[in-house]
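Input/output pair, single chain:
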Amino acid sequence: MKVLVIGGGGREHALCWSLARAADVDEIVCAPGNAGIAKIARCAHVKPDDPSAVRALAEREHADLVVVGPEAPLVAGVADALREAGIAVFGPSATAAQLEGSKAYAKEVMAEAGVSTARHWTGTDAAAAKEALEGFAAPYVVKADGLAAGKGVRLCDTRAEASEAIDEAIVARAFGDAGARVVLEEHLAGPELSVFAISDGTRVALLAPAQDHKRVGDGDTGPNTGGMGAYSPVPLADEALLERVRCEALQPTIDALAARGTPYVGVLYAGLVLTGEGPKVLEYNCRFGDPEAQAVLPRLRGSLAAVLRSAARGRLTQTRLDTDDTACVTVVLAAAGYPGRYDKGARITGLESLAAREDVLVFHAGTTKREGQLVTDGGRVLAVSGLGADLRAARDAAYGAVDHIDFDGAFCRRDIAARAIDGATER
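Output:
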């Protein structure tokens, strides 16, 4: 089959890499792709969140399956445009994608489905939001309702700081229209866990879980980012816990959306907190996590394309995708200044020395070619995944590879998976 992948980051590189391994995939086209993706797929310069342009590309390429990577194209209605044209697409409709596009919408659906989540308040008035803080205790959680590239969440130690975060979102519009509405939540204490389910609109099949690291600095310090690293498997997530998440959160959510007349076809990503009262959903995302995909997909057995096409056609049969025993640790190399302002165009060196390594995969997130040189083109530049018999071996492989790569201003967290390896409770 010919597969069209929409997106151009590290997650899409991992998707293209995983799809390319399948014997049933003849060709991969990626729009817009990046310098790393270009080595395994033909890149097409199409704006990924333009539904009509994506539809025209899929028709021109006679794609058998379209896989939409990022959230923005899904919220923009790319999957709807493809379905209207009769093209098999793996990705939810614009309405169903509001599970990520609007945190308030996600809370409504969770309430209908009986999913355990944090107590919350939502609104558009800054004064009312500040008054609502009285109903919560420190640390205060202030979230932009809409898409903010993983940067719209503030964890505030004081009420003054929370008031500032409210003004930043609603008054100053630091996140544009995404912050016009805010969601205040009670802080959930406990380890975090990312669980991914493939859904065909009726059924769900779980992938291996992962745990990501959102804060920019070691020890979970500094501002939130799109993700600085991830690992899989997660020692805390045994089979009983995963089955509980499937039955109490993921399947009921799919059922609730189907009952609304908006069946969900795609990846449903549950960000969970394992509280003393049991697992609670912190948020839903409507796509593979980034960089969790770079830690989960290398462990997947069988054809990813076959599973995604079955889901797109409403014919999913399994409840769990096969995963091998290999561990994977992914470390993100970022540009100086990220998640704030950063420069582009720094030359990247050292990747050639890793080409022969079977225990290392380098996924490009923000790269491009200029005058024949590989240079930086984003805040998160590369995701380096190490593979090993256990998390310690995988982590050693990842950081060993990271130390061979260089570009001006490069930095990474040095504690990805460290607590899991040490046997301590994460976060």
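The chain has 13 helices and 22 strands. The mean pLDDT is 94.
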